[in-house]
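Can anyone check this?
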Amino acid sequence: MSGVEVNHARALEGVPHGFLGRLGGVSTGVVAGLNVGTGSNDEPDVIAENRRRAVEAVLPSARLATVYQVHSADAVTIVSPFDEALRPRADALVTDRPGLALGVLTADCAPVLFADRAAGVVAAAHAGWKGAIAGVTDSTIEAMEALGARRERIAAAVGPCIARASYEVDSDFFRRFAEQDPANERFFADGRPQHFQFDLEAYVVHRLALAGLRMIEALGLDTYANENRFFSFRRATHRGEADYGRQISMIGLGG
């Protein structure tokens, strides 16, 4: 659809997918653009139109499936979209059914899309720092394997998220990762006293590689720094804005 920016990953070539931003929507105000977040104060009919445009830009006529994201490590396998009021609390979706657009919403967290072309299995995961360190990508891969995927065939791509230069964290945050694995210190750069700059994207890529994936791509797009293209929770917070938008990343099987 004209006006909707769809970022693609070479690793997922041939599989309907897209990492979308804020361009091409009908929302106005501080959430201007393609805001798809029902947790925002945007009008429901406007959000619905944005979601329709998003799906049409990636997998026309597909049915959109999302979950109630809670920064967990939980992945669910689906065969049809959930009723809005009955969405499970989880942070990843997996399917082998054509005609579904699996969607995850982000506003600085890392969206990760997966595909095993040979098995016909796809997945989408929301990896904020809590879900990433808890193993949401590992859970996603295991759920894909339960449907016949093989991790050595799974391709994964990490979409727009907050970059190291924009992601300041405190010493307690740093210690959580260092205590899990001292090698995690490499994902932190020194910042101002008692603070660090965290590389979420690199950490997620590391977890994917550690899980045995061989085809991994990182798009290297900073949601915080690219205001005209992406929504950012941290940017909105720093500005004291009353609301913030959410973008969507989707993947599905045609047919």
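Reply from J.R.: I decoded it. The CA atoms of residues 67 and 87 lie 5 Å apart.
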